[in-house]
Design a protein that fits this description.
The structure is a homodimer.
Chain A (H helix, E strand, L loop, with lengths): L5 H15 L7 H8 L3 H13 L3 E3 L6 E3 L8 H7 L20 H26 L16
Antiparallel strand pairs in A: 1-2
The structure holds a DNA duplex.
Chain lengths: 143, 143
DNA sequence: TCCTCCTGTAATATTAATTGTTACATGAAA
DNA sequence: TTTCATGTAACAATTAATATTACAGGAGGA
């Protein structure tokens, strides 16, 4: 399995807003062209970002704009906004361990703390990285 | 998305071996009963564990046995053995960013280092937990 | 030897999630 | 009032995970 590409697409969208805002209207069609993904998918992801308060869309012809300082948004904010992982958590636990077996009866209590802890470390790492910490866009001066 | 239940099932299998080895033959049918998952699924996971050198299966009537000290096996060993995550890594990167767009051209170089670092932290955490670190099986003395 | 238990694996089905596509009603600006 | 874009529904396509049935073949016990 892999974490849904909604996550990297959402970062791509935010970076486009950062780069183009005020210059070009950042519409879903425009984003679709930069990202290489269907415009409807883009709109669905934007509606997640909107619900999370990361961006705004003013109907009309202006496209998406930021609704808080983009640089301070963390990868965790984006990850949560687009529901990159199921609400049940990072690990999928098998559903029917047998309570009549001494191992089956205890497997949850044996593993749950550790799995939660792993997930916590993973999420803390996502929280520690803000958009401003990503490498900046390099310009090829020969162009 | 979620990390495949193959991972928690594999841990369950190893805990069963730890608990029952030498007392009851740990067969795929027996494991299927404890885990609540079809025996063929169990056999497939066992064949992964075998390939990774964590367990042995001697044909005949003895079921699965350990092939190295179970307590020293880390969650990372199990995670890698069962291919809980695609070989491309934890994050699914969208496939066709547009090289003609300054953002599309740079999105990989902007994100890849950070994603690798997050994955590294996640895997280090898995490596830090051995089977012996899991909570032990509790026995209800009223039984 | 023959029977039985078990493994390994193929083939196929089912389910769920992701991603893609078409279509269209509606809002806002020119 | 035309034009451009959004929001969303409906549905298709794809992929991964999981379940199920079936069976050939190894190994031990009778």
């Amino acid at each position: 399995m892999q974490i849904s590409s909604r996550f990297t697409i959402a970062v791509h969208i935010l970076e486009c807003i950062k780069y183009f805002e005020g210059k070009i209207p950042v519409t879903s069609d425009f984003l679709s062209g930069s990202i290489g993904v269907n415009a409807v998918i883009i709109r669905r992801i934007i509606s997640h970002l909107k619900a999370a308060g990361l961006v705004k869309v003013e109907r009309g012809r202006n496209g998406v704009i930021s609704s808080r300082p983009l640089d301070e948004i963390t990868l965790y904010d984006v990850y949560v906004a687009v529901e990159a992982v199921s609400s049940e958590g990072l690990f999928h636990f098998h559903g029917n361990p047998n309570p009549k077996c001494p191992v089956g009866k205890n497997i949850h209590s044996m593993l749950d703390d550790s799995l939660r802890e792993i997930q916590r470390v993973f999420e803390e790492k996502l929280k520690s990285i803000k958009l401003k910490d990503l490498k900046s866009i390099t310009v090829d001066i020969t162009e």
